[in-house]
Amino acid sequence: MEFITTRDELRTHYKQASGRAVAKEMRALDRHARTFLAHSPFVLIGSQDAAGNADVTPKGDRPGFVAVLDDATIAIPDRPGNNRLDTFENLIENPAIGLIFLIPGMNETLRINGKARLTADLALRERFAIDGKLPISVLVVSVDACYMHCAKAFMRSSLWKPETWPDRASLPTLGQILAEQIATNQSGEEVDEALRTSYAQTMW
């Protein structure tokens, strides 16, 4: 198998990007980007450490959980998780960040690329309080590029069409998967019950 190794070679296999695909990239948040963020309950965060090791992690919360601080800055609260901190450790070494925001049922997405810093500033954390519970920290992202992404990936995958979804009962639960992967002395059912308890107690 031969691999493509240069930009020139890559372009021999693809057409040039259309004028609209290039022109749509913005350096700040316009009213449409703000509206999208106000309705989005989910974001995928891409990062790399100093050595180039990559990671993508999801974050979900109530719609509009990401705050717009100004035309070129957004803030993302961090709720309780698994404490691996893969993304945050990456961003301390390399602040470059890539974000894809989703709205359920909408095939288009909002992409934001920029630089990120992590803060435990109390005043900012209090802005994101839910039922009196503050996020552990807040990710502050300076926007370098912002644009809407077309619908083809979601149209091809039929992601939002329930009739295309697999029967969940035909797939193993997370507890069953972890019981095998970690070789724990707990059964899959016991792991699932522990996860349900954790979800109930540490969602916020």
Task: Provide an overview of this structure.
InterPro entries: Pyridox_Oxase_FMN-dep, Pyridox_Oxase_N, Split_barrel_FMN-bd. This protein is globular. The protein is an alpha+beta fold and 204 residues long. The protein folds into 2 domains: 22-157, Pnp Oxidase, Chain A (Roll); 166-202, no CATH class. Strands 2-1-5-6-7-4-3 form a 7-stranded antiparallel sheet, with helices on one face. It has helices at 7-11, 19-23, 31-39, 86-93, 122-127, 152-157, 174-181, 188-202, and strands at 42-48, 54-60, 67-70, 73-78, 96-102, 109-119, 137-149. The termini are far apart.
Write a compact overview of the structure shown.
The chain has 204 residues and is of the alpha+beta class.
Beta-strand residue percentage: 25-35%
The top level CATH class name of the largest domain: Mainly Beta
Number of helices, where a helix is a run of at least 4 consecutive DSSP H or I residues = 8
Largest sheet: 7 strands, antiparallel
Task: Quickly list its features.
204 residues; Pyridoxamine 5'-phosphate oxidase family protein; 8 helices; Split_barrel_FMN-bd; 7 strands; 30% helix; Pyridox_Oxase_N; globular; 2 domains; Pyridox_Oxase_FMN-dep
Topology:
Layout (H helix, E strand, L loop, with lengths): L6 H5 L7 H5 L7 H9 L2 E7 L5 E7 L6 E4 L2 E6 L7 H8 L2 E7 L6 E11 L2 H6 L9 E13 L2 H6 L16 H8 L6 H15 L2
Antiparallel strand pairs: 1-2, 1-5, 3-4, 4-7, 5-6, 6-7
Helix pairs in contact: 7-8
